[in-house]
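Hello,

Following up on my earlier ticket. Below are the two sequence lines again, exactly as submitted.
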Amino acid sequence: MFKTLRLSTLLKIVLVLSLLYIFLLGIKFTGTSFKLFGQDFAENLISMYSNPFCGLFTGILVTSIIQSSSTTTSLIVGLAGSGVLPIEAAIPMVMGANMGTTITNVLVSLTFITRKEDFRRAFTAATMHDFFNIFTILVFFPLEMTFHIIEKSALFLTDVFQGVGGVTFTSPLKLVIDPVARGFQHFLADTFGVSDVVVGIVMLVMAIALVIFSLIYLVKTMRSLVINTTERVIDKYIFRNIFTAFMLGMLLTAVVQSSSVTTSMIVPLVAAGFLALDRAYPFTLGANIGTTITAILASLATISSDNGASVTTIGLTVALSHLVFNIYGTIIFLPLRKIPIYCATRLGNVAAESKKWAFIFVIGVFFILPLLIVFLTR
Amino acid sequence: MTNELMDMLRGSPLIKKAIELFIDMISGDEHLYNEAWRVISTEENIERIPQSFYDKDIEVNNQEKEIRRLLFEHLTIRPSHDISGCLVLMSLVKDAERIGDYSKNIFEAGVLYRGTIKDIKFFTRLLPTQKNIADSFPVLREAFKNSDVKLANDILKNYTPIKRECDRILNELFEAEVSTNEAVVTAMLSRYFKRINSHISNIASGLVYPLNEIDFVSGDILE
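Thanks for your patience. The regenerated structure is below:
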């Protein structure tokens, strides 16, 4: 039995490493494909997202649809890392992705709709994550547009990363990723004799498929690897105090690489009345920070030393801006937690009394409003 | 259902904790049941139920709440894992909690009688039934600890004889010449024994039968 368990764990670890490789390959494909679309495409993309509102709401919309901020931010990192998307355009998108991913929680809370009091608590627990993001965006979006404080902080962290030899560390990764990406690109071009744009389209489709596939199975495998530990640590730490709940949210999410999974896990606990909002809230904020690890991992595939210093670490800077945004938000809205919790409680009360408001909130905030703003600001 | 319960023990720390608590609950029930009978059948004049007895009952109730929380937490984290085992345990904790309540009722019957139960006419009729039930607790605990279907079946075999004996006592009571006080306390005790016997059998059935068949023995509902 012991040997069987060890073997299955070992196999899962090998699977995780393989999936990680596929994920990084997908990110590399993203960057390569966008480069193949040519300078005109890049200029069009930059021009379209020169309006930060467009970037912000695109981030919300796309993440709401695919329900994974890890996927969106990783693809943004891939785009930025290839030099197609500038940091100034990528940061609002990352903020939007942070907001968009909360839809999963809200959808989970809707499953409690038949029991009024459970639904009231579940919807409150889910939307306090939304309100945290709304308030953080309200504070930091204007600050970023005016003073670039997130970008500057992310650049500082990028320098620190380089300073400790992070770029050197990624060299072996590039050795196993770059030749495959280049080889595939040449294979398509030589075998089928198609243009760069067609190769780019094929590689982009493959990139998205690889990223989504690898992330789905990465989350599943990591979850199954740590499931018993998850049960133990959740039971032990989430109910203890704010700090342990926060740390648990951060570490658990960093391991399973999906804040949707971890934050959705606590919605039923709040709905059933087992977990208080003031414990669920720090857990959620911790999960927000923990989930940024995926984009940071993705950025490892984008670091290159052959394009000059200004381009090499741009993907990493974008990934770190995701981390900085959540850290700043936590610094302000963890002490001021009463504000988002109050707003979520009020909304939860309204939604419990009249269910239509729950649906209006979901459709309005995650789909109609972003669609409208993206359309108007294009 | 045994395999599911054993899988639960192996698979999840929360379920393991829940099953340990459930076994503690059975021990708590045993304590309450034996203590209630000991006091009402030995002490001359019981004024009120001691606080320690209430505390034990509260402990059993809290264990029920804790088990529910653990099971829910487990199902939230691993929704499709051990689901039938969790639902069985969720049902069984209610039975364990009810045994605590009926044991408290036995005590209350003794307090209401204002004398020792030993002196009532039906005492010798009640005693073997009381003992049979008391003997079931350690068997039930062992059965649960080891997911032992044989032991659980032994308890289920005792279900009908004990139930019939309780009914017989009640029937004989209608014919007997006893004081109102004696009649009331005898009726109450026989009724409580019958209920406790049913709840013990319900718990045992959780080890033997699949989820939809628990609380039934050979197609008959455990009253």
